[in-house]
Structure formats: structure tokens, C-alpha cells
């Protein structure tokens, strides 16, 4: 009888252990089933969210941004202003003459260069030839040949735009020329390319030019002066 009691007790303990083992396995399975392992499972439970598309366009950094290039301004040669008012614009004079004188004055201060005819360097006849050619008036290149163009005029008839010629050598040959820029009473001013000073405005009353003076020529028509 005692033996049956012990066997029954042993059977109950074994059943209890089996029950505990069963419960443990059930709990493990339940916790494992809570882990979502696929996209379809997440969609079924309504917790799936599609990932946002990444912006694949690379942003341009400030370093790579191109800035527009600034245009370089062309520098014109500095032209010193003439003394006094030897090239003053007269309202009652020809617009053509005023323009011609203004063009000649752009060369004021340019270096002398034998055979030159631009802002890099110019000689006396080159200055005259270039300035007049700007207004479609063709003149010979040499000063001695320019002296043969137009007609000679007397000092009292000289006007702005006329040419003044000189003989500065001992050969008694015309070898220098200038353009009259102003007539103030008995004084005549002219612009020319001097071998020593470059392009300047001088007065015919200066001793050197007074002694070397040869003649005046008018190469422009009445409608121009």
C-alpha cells in the first residue's frame, strides 16, 4: 500500500515537470512568433512603411559655383591737359573743326617716334596725317609734301584747323608741321609732335618756332571751317 502511494507521488511530480516544460516551450514559441522577419508579414500587420527615396542630386558647393568673369576695361593713355585755354571750344565755330582739334588733343603727351602714327608713338607728319584721315581728309605722309596741299594763307587769315610749317634744319627745307588749335589776338597756338617733348601745344611766339616758321596752309574747304 505504501508502495502505491510512493508511485503515485512520483507520477504526479513527473507530470508537474512535464507541464512546466510544456509551458516553457509555449512561451518561447510565442515570443519567437512576435519577431517580424519579412516585408509581407509587416504589411499584413499594417505596420509596414515604404522607405523615402533619397535625393540623388548632388548639391553644388560654393567652391564649385562659377562666378561670372568681369570684363577688363581697356585703359586709354593718360593725356595731360594743355595749359590755359588754347583749345577752348568756340560755340560760333564749325563743329567739324572742333571735332578735329579734339581728336588731335587726344594725342597730347604721346611720345615722339619717327615714322609712328598711333598712341604708341608718333612723329609730326604722322600726327597730322592720322588726325585728318579720321575725317576722310587724305594728306601725304611727309611734311614737305603736305606743304604742297591746299593753298598758302597769310598770318592774319589763319584759323583753327589750318596747318603751320617750319624749317628747323639748315637745309632750308620744310621738315616740321603742326595743326593750329587756337588764335588769340596776335598769338597762334598749334599742336605738334616735338622730337624732344613728344606731342605738345606750343605758341608761334616762342623764339625757336618764330625763327623756324615757313608758311601756313589751308587744306580744308569753306564748308569745313
Protein described:
The termini are far apart. About 9% of the residues have low confidence. A hairpin with a 2-residue loop joins β5 and β6. The strands form two sheets. This protein has a six-stranded antiparallel beta sheet with strand order 3-8-4-5-6-7. Strands 1-2 form a two-stranded antiparallel ribbon. The chain has a domain of 124 residues: Alpha-Beta Complex (endopeptidase fold (from Nostoc punctiforme)), CATH 3.90.1720.10. The longest helix is centred in the N-terminal third of the chain and has 32 residues. The protein has 225 residues and is an alpha+beta fold.
- Per CATH, the class of the domain at 95-218 reads Alpha Beta
Helix coverage percent of residues? 25-40%
- Low-confidence parts: 56-61, 79-92
Pairing-aware structural class of the strands and helices?
alpha+beta
Order of helices and strands: HHHEEHHEEEEEHE
Number of helices: 6
CATH superfamily of the domain at 95-218: endopeptidase domain like (from Nostoc punctiforme)
Outline the biggest β-sheet: 6 strands, antiparallel
Q: Summarize model confidence as the mean pLDDT.
A: 78
Label the overall shape. Answer: rod-shaped
**Estimated share of beta-strand residues:** 15-25%
Ends distance = 160 Å
The total count of strands amounts to 8
Strand adjacency order, main sheet: 3-8-4-5-6-7
Q: Specify the CATH architecture of the domain at 95-218.
A: Alpha-Beta Complex
User: For the CA atoms, what is the radius of gyration?
Assistant: 53 Å
What CATH calls the topology of the domain at 95-218 is endopeptidase fold (from Nostoc punctiforme)
Amino acid at each position: 500500500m505504501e508502495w502505491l502511494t510512493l508511485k503515485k507521488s512520483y507520477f504526479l511530480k513527473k507530470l508537474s515537470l512535464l507541464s512546466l516544460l510544456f509551458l516553457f516551450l509555449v512561451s518561447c514559441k510565442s515570443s519567437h512568433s512576435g519577431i517580424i522577419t519579412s516585408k509581407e508579414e509587416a504589411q499584413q500587420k499594417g505596420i509596414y512603411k515604404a522607405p523615402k527615396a533619397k535625393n540623388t542630386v548632388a548639391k553644388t558647393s560654393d567652391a564649385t559655383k562659377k562666378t561670372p568673369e568681369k570684363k577688363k576695361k581697356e585703359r586709354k593713355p593718360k593725356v595731360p591737359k594743355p595749359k590755359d585755354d588754347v583749345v577752348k571750344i568756340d560755340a560760333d565755330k564749325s563743329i567739324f573743326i572742333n571735332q578735329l582739334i579734339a581728336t588731335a588733343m587726344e594725342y597730347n603727351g604721346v611720345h615722339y617716334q619717327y615714322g609712328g602714327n598711333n598712341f604708341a608713338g608718333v612723329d609730326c607728319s604722322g600726327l597730322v596725317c592720322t588726325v585728318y584721315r579720321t575725317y576722310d581728309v587724305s594728306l601725304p605722309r611727309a611734311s614737305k609734301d603736305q606743304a604742297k596741299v591746299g593753298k598758302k594763307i597769310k598770318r592774319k587769315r589763319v584759323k583753327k584747323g589750318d596747318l603751320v610749317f617750319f624749317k628747323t634744319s639748315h637745309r632750308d627745307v620744310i621738315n616740321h608741321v603742326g595743326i593750329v588749335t587756337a588764335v588769340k589776338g596776335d598769338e597762334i597756338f598749334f599742336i605738334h609732335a616735338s622730337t624732344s617733348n613728344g606731342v605738345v601745344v606750343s605758341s608761334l611766339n616762342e623764339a625757336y618756332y618764330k625763327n623756324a616758321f615757313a608758311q601756313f596752309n589751308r587744306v580744308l574747304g569753306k564748308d569745313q571751317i
